[in-house]
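S.,

Sequence below, as promised.
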Amino acid sequence: MNHSDSAPPIHTHIFDSGNQAGERGTRLVVVITALMMVVEIIAGWWFNSMALLADGWHMSSHAVAIGLSAFAYAMARRHAQDHRFAFGTWKIEILAGFASALFLLGVAAWMVAGSVERLFDPKPIHYREAIIVAIVGLAVNVACALILGQAHGHGHDQHHAHDEGGHHHDLNLRSAYLHVIADAATSVLAIAALAGGMVFGWAWLDPVMGFAGAILVAVWAKGLLRDSSRVLLDAEMDRPVVEEIREAISTQPHWGRETQILDLHVWRVGKGSYACILALAGQHPRLTVESVRQCLAVHEEVAHLTVEIHASAGNGHP
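The prediction came back faster than expected:
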C-alpha cells in the first residue's frame, strides 16, 4: 500500500517574482553604461587607443547584457501569477545570468582578437586625452557598481533568502554586477597601459593589457556560467540540504530501523528555496506523510515537499 502527498507545502512561500531593487538598479545602470560606451568607443577610435576602444566595445556588450538582466526582472514580475510556471518565474533571472556569461565570453574573445591585431599593427596613440576618458569611464563604473551593490542589499532585505552559506543568491544581479566590475577592471588596465605608454614609451603595453583584460573577463564568465548552468540543469544533489534530509530521515527514532529512502530528488526553485520529492519504504505505523512533513519542517529552505510512503522496500535503493 502506498501513500503520497504533495500539498500543502511545508512552508508557504511566494516564489521570487524579481528583485525590485535589482530591477531599478539595472535599468539605471543600463542608461549610464550606454552613454559611457558611446564616449569611449568614439574616443578610442579618435585617439588610436586599443585599450580604450576595447573598453568601449566591452562596455557595449555589457550594456546589452545588463539590459537583458533588467528585462529578465520585468518578465519574472509580469508572469509571477502565471500558473503555467509550476515553481514561479525565478529561473527567468537565472537564464538571463547564463546568457550574460556567454556575452562575457564573447567579449573576451573579441578583446583577444583586437589586441592581436593592434600588437602587429600599432598606431600612434594620443595618450593624455585617452587617459582622461579612461578615468571618467572608471568613475562611471564605480558609480554603477555602487548602485548595484545597494540594490543587492535591498534585495536581501526584501526576500530574506539565503543559501547554505548565508549569502543572498541572485545570479541575475550578480551577472549585472560582474559586467560592471569587468568594465571597471578593463578601465584600470586601460589607464595603466596608457600611462605606461605615455611615460615610458611602451606602446606594446596597450594591446598587452587587452590580453590581460580578456583573461580576467573569461575567468569571471566561467564562474557565472558554471553557477547558472547548475541551477538551470537542476544539478543540486550535492547541496548540504540533501544530506540534511537524508540524516533527518535515517536518525528518526520513531519509524523503526527498516525505514529506507527509495527516492530523493532536490532542486532549486528560488533564491535559497528548494523543492523535494521523497519516497520512503517502511512498515512502522508511525511512519506517515504527516510525520515526515513534521520531521522536515525545520528545513525552511524546503519550500515544496512531495512525500510517498511504500509499505515494503521492494528492490528500490536510495
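The helical segments are 20-47, 50-78, 90-120, 127-159, 171-200, 205-232, 240-250, 289-296.

Coffee later?
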